[in-house]
Amino acid sequence: MLPMNFLDRLRAAADERQSLLCVGLDPEPARFPCGIAPGAAGIYDFCARIVEATADLVCAFKPQIAYFAAQRAEEALERLIAHMRAVAPRVPVILDAKRGDIGATAEQYAREAFERYGADAVTLSPFMGFDSIEPYLRYPDKGAFLLCRTSNPGGDDLQARRLADAPGQPLLYEHIAQLAQGPWNRNGQLGLVVGATYPQEIARVRAIAPTLPLLIPGVGAQGGDAAATVRAGWRPGAPIVVNSSRAILYASSGADFADAARRAAENTRAALQAAQPS
After folding, report:
1. So what's the pLDDT on residue 168?
2. pLDDT of residue 193
3. Where do the structural domains in the chain lie, given as residue ranges?
4. Which CATH number fits domain 6-273: 3.40.50.300, 3.60.20.10, 3.20.20.70, 3.90.1150.10?
5. Do 78 and 103 meet the contact criterion of CB atoms below 8 Å apart?
6. For residue 249, how far is the Cα from the chain centroid?
């Protein structure tokens, strides 16, 4: 039997847990509850409690590397991912790094994501073209999500611009979806990042890329609507991974923060499941 690749693991976790929910781990020490040490010392403890409280509710976890690196807590991130493997061994880990470089530098970023941290997938910026993506595809059991139509307002500055010299004059985000669905997806490893704040664009990306997994941030604190997100992006056999970070992590500022995070995750998971077509 061939080993499971990232897409296999993602589908299996979503089916096993009946969940489209991904919990994003963006630890901000200033928002930690009483009893959690400030700064890097408390990052592992806080995130580990969140992981333990939500492990049976999610199809993926998504640690954001900048929140760890800014606090000199890369070692805590390594420990945390190892803890995820122990607590939820069948739940994929998506390292949110948004890397985008070429050649030998991209090779080192790929080693960082997949060998140092042991992530199952990574987020990437496709701005520098396919040679900035290819080093990650040398890991055949791993995945990569390309930024496509992001949830921030400034995404319009480039992503919504029309390409006059491309067939059909697509918008830039449409062109990225075409490349990811087609010639760039050599080993079936690619997915796309599409923000929950743009459900019409989610539907457009899904029409262009009917089989790719979509990583959809922006539900919760950023205002994305869970039901609209699922209606736009979910298709049988084409996974969607709907991320919520702050609304779950900081559901309570008290000693009950882990229990509150679980309740918030349960509510979001239920809303996502209810929006799937019967």
Report:
1. 83
2. 97
3. 6-273
4. 3.20.20.70
5. no
6. 15
Catalytically active residues are 98
CA nearest to 261, candidates 272, 270, 250, 269: 250
Q: What is the DSSP string of the chain?
A: -PPP-HHHHHHHHHHHHT--EEEEE---GGGPPTTSPSTHHHHHHHHHHHHHHHTTT-SEEEEBHHHHHTTT-HHHHHHHHHHHHHH-TTS-BEEEEEE---HHHHHHHHHIIIIIS--SEEEE--TT-GGGTGGGGGSTT-EEEEEEE-SSGGGHHHHT-B-TTSTT--BHHHHHHHHHHTTT-TTS-EEEEE-TT-HHHHHHHHHHSTTS-EEE--BSTT-B-HHHHHHHH-BTTB-EEEEE-HHHHTS-SSTTHHHHHHHHHHHHHHHHHHHS--
For residue 24, which of 255, 247, 197 has the smallest C-alpha distance?
A: 247
Q: What is the distance between the alpha carbons of residues 155 and 172, in angstroms, rounded to a whole number?
A: 11
Give me the residue label for tokens 């998506």: 94
207: Cβ contacts below 8 Å, ≥ 6 apart: none
Nearest to 45 by CA among 56, 57, 35, 55: 35
pLDDT tens for residues 188-232? Answer: 999 999 998 888 999 999 999 999 999 999 876 566 788 888 989
Amino acid identity of residue 171, one-letter, is L
Q: Torsion angle, CA of 254/260/262/266, rounded to 10 degrees?
A: -170
Low-confidence residues of the chain, pLDDT below 70? 1-3, 220-223, 278
Strands laid side by side in the 94-99 sheet: 60-63, 21-25, 240-244, 214-216, 190-194, 143-149, 121-124, 94-99
User: What is the token pair recorded at 148?
Assistant: 């496509």
